[in-house]
Specification:
By secondary structure, the chain is mostly helical. The protein has eight helices and eight strands; from the N terminus they run H-H-H-H-H-H-H-E-E-E-H-E-E-E-E-E. The strands form three sheets. The protein has a three-stranded mixed sheet with strand order 1-3-2.
Length: 372
Amino acid sequence: MYFHTQQLINEIVPDQPDPFAANALQEGLGGQFGEMRTMMQYLFQSVNFRGPAVQYKDLIHAVAVEEISHVELIATTIARLLDGAPGYQPNGDGGVPGAGGGTPLQSILHTGNIHHFLVGAQGALPVDAAGNPWSGSYVYNSGNLVLDLLYNLMLEATGRTQKCRIYEMSDNKTLRVTVAYLIVRDEVHEKVFAKALESLGVDWGKTLPIPNFDATKYPEVKALYDTGIQNVQYTFRLDGSRAGEVFQGASPFNDGTTIRMMDRPEQGFAIPQAPERLEEFAPGLTPELMELAQAAAAMAAGGPRVSGSGVNLSGAAAGSAASAGAAPPRTAGGTEPLVRVEKDGQEIPLKGGEKIDLTADEPTARPTSASS
């Protein structure tokens, strides 16, 4: 089973929206050597692992779980690069999409991937930079440990190479900070699989890393190197892991550094909340639906509980009310209350045409006015 913390594994630095940069970053998400591929490949390898050498299973699984957080990070970054792009201007003066009666999405006809706006409402998609959908056929899981480790090393090296290319395509800070982090973590994962193969008899000499260059020329990468995370792999396990039996000691890069395992990253970062985009009808909550959402939040925070169906708490017809239990019975004549509000053991029936103040200490029903 898996647990989730509502934090990103790395900070997303704000900059101007840039749909072309977002589209380039799609390769790192849904491309053949992107984060979705690494996540799925390592998950399947760990699930299908055979035999007693579970320290290698634990090592592959540790990287697999980290890749889930990378998918979250890169997809959120793409969304931030897209958000507000209908009003985007290269000089950064922005503007309100469709202000003055203009066509709010007209500029998108000339953007990198129209599906980011037509299908995704200014959000990431499971596709590569050319718009090709991610494919499960990318996943390599032979069942042979050495073959799988070799393939994983190739995958990380290719992914790192592509991310270095993406970094050099744009000076957008939102893109560069995320890509720099992934360049460093791909380097760690090269070390993970190289160390595992080294423990099985491979001598890497001066072959690694791939690409082999001074990555500190990227300022964001150098800042991460200064923290030491290029030599640390996380287990993301609550019940202990044997991965440290493999990933320890001298780096397989033969650069004089030492590698080690940790349970988890030392810190997480806030997930930015995407604003509403009326020109995309996203999230498309009318005032009545928003009232229901706020009512559900109030109940979750210890407020009154609403159960039942068929009545909108604002007085308009809706599909269902927020429910923490089963709907009460209704008679053929419709005389039974459609919604019940409960607080401190007290039930208040609510019939059609009534409205309730869920913020009051003691909920009270009142008739809905014509303007509600």
